[in-house]
Amino acid sequence: MWIDTHCHLDAHEFGAASLAVAGQARAAGVSMIVIPAVERANFETVAQLAHAAPNASYALGIHPIYVPQARDEDLVSLRAAVEKAMIDPRFVAIGEIGLDFFIPMLCEPAMREKQERFFREQLRIARDFDLPVLTHVRRSQDQVLKHLRQIQPAGGIAHAFNGSEQQANTFIKLGLHLGFGGAMTFTRALQIRRLAASLPLERIVLETDAPDISPSWIHPARNSPEQLPRIGAALAELRGTDPAEVALGTWRSSLAAIPRLQALLAE
Fold first, then answer.
1. pLDDT tens across 76-92, in order?
2. In CATH, what class is 2-265?
3. How far apart are CA 147 and CA 142, in angstroms?
4. pTM higher than 0.90, yes or no?
5. Are 259 and 1 contacting, i.e. CB atoms less than 8 angstroms apart?
6. CB proximity list for 4: less than 8 A, separation 6 or greater
7. 8 Å CB contact between 5 and 22
8. Which residue of 48, 138, 179, 194 is surrounded by the most CB atoms within 10 Å?
């Protein structure tokens, strides 16, 4: 009874095996996988994949790494795609969106401005359709928080959270949940592990970000959503509790973060 709230199941690393990977995850106990889009070109891909895999859903958005080649028309297309997808029960959120100030090219002034403009417009789309957001916050927690304060969506997730306790609490106050995954399985990730152990479980969701952020036991091999139960067990160990408690707690957190999952999982 696990939910992978962030998995790029359509990534080229999976090749033609995406459906088989989803099936393996389901056999391992992963009841739902959320597949975020990253650019206009894969809006239809993630939707089709979510409909082909019984344990999959999808989000639509433009990832900050894809902003350099994106055009303003892509934002118009995103709004139109979201409006059309609102009747699709497998469509659950806006994402992956956010800011990335880790890659040098994305830190140039003109590209920072474009990233922030695209992020703000996607927050408006989320707000207008009352949808949660799956946010990318790599070295950009404070900037992402600034925009979330100004354009507040209906909750969501700070994906692959790697900020401070103060930043974590600010995301929580703004109604967001925090995503933890393979990074917390490394003993050197002291801050992430401390937060995973101490933050309220009702504000923590689990994710793989597969094929990326592989947990310690398979790193540097390709990550997969079937690793999520073991990642959940690692969280339970950090918190000194039972994996069943973490499974139930993060299940509830995931439904609170992405409410449209409730009806889908009730089918």
1. 999 999 999 999 999 99
2. alpha beta
3. 9
4. yes
5. no
6. 25, 30, 32, 33, 34, 206, 207, 208, 210, 225, 228
7. no
8. 179
